[in-house]
Amino acid sequence: NFNEWRPLFDQGLGLVVQCQTVKLVEHGVKAALEYKLEGDRRYTIRRKETPVGAIQRVTVNSIRAPRLMEWHHEHWVKRPQDYRVLKWITENTEVVPQYEAFAGAEDEAGERGIAVVLGGRSPAMTIQIDYAGGEQFALDVARGVDELFELYEAEKMLFLEVNRAIAAGPGAFVTWCEQLTIDMLGPGRYAELLMPVYEKAVPLHERAGKRVLVQYDGKLKAVAERIAGAPFHVVEMLTEPPEGDMTLSECRAAWPDKV
Predict the structure, then answer these.
(1) Interatomic CA distance for residues 26 and 30, integer angstroms
(2) Which pLDDT score is estimated for 114?
């Protein structure tokens, strides 16, 4: 009931309504989905078959609480060849605008908030979070696995294409779902893998009058200085200690030109 929330909105609470103004269409991929029950656990098995091989991802949740988040059980990447399959899929993905979705999000936000366009994740964070998982990603980066870095280059091209399409569409704010905690990546890799992408992608939106938000919801102190020099405008989903390692006041002092 909006009237029950009104006192909080009067004090400054606002809504962020996220929407997608582009969709990704994978061509030449045969996708399959199945479920398996073991006790009170439900396993969701997703499989993708391509001309260069097949990959599989498994998530799990409880049948007692089916609406809760599915947890990773088996990531897409288990071996270097899996990066090559993902690279093929990435290279055969079409970016299709669906700008009409923005109007619905804007209507939902109304005067109580803002509509924010989802701009995906940067390539390294996509590989870490969506494909390989933190442990496999860290090991493969440290080993210098060629297939991972080949996928990174393909993902970078797709990420820039996605954000060019978003920049050409409606909206004033774009969020990248980075979910960064620096102890999963390290300052050196931040400078090597994230910053160059930010420097290419943020200007696409600035030229269109948009502002870029990054979802940084973990530890950040080790890259506080690098964040100060990064071109994005808003650090979203900041987590204070003990999960994070910087307070809001410390962040404002470190990044005076960012929200």
Answers:
(1) 9
(2) 94
Local structure of 98: helix, strand or coil? coil
How far apart are alpha carbons 185 and 235 in whole angstroms? 18
CB 216 within 8 A of CB 246: no
Of residues 244, 186, 187, 192, the one with CA closest to residue 215: 244
Neighbours of 6 (CB within 10 A): 12
Where does the pLDDT of residue 112 fall: very low under 50, low under 70, confident under 90, or very high at 90 and above? confident
Q: Tell me the two tokens of residue 136.
A: 């496999």
Which residue's entry shows tokens 């093929």?
Answer: 88
**What residues are paired with 31 via a beta bridge?**
48
Per DSSP, the three-state class of 45 is strand
Specify the DSSP element, H or E, that contains 206: helix 195-206
Residue at 247: amino acid letter: T
Residue 66 has pLDDT above 90, yes or no: no
- Residues 6 or more apart whose CB falls under 8 angstroms from that of 256 comprise none
Q: Which helix (H) or strand (E) holds 55?
A: strand 53-62
The Cα 254–Cα 245 span in angstroms is 13
Give the number of other CB atoms < 10 A from CB of residue 34: 9
Peptide bond into 7 cis (omega under 30): no
pTM of the model: 0.94
Three-state SS at 157 = helix
* CA distance to 48, 57, 62, 122, 151, per residue, from 27 (Å): 11, 19, 33, 22, 17
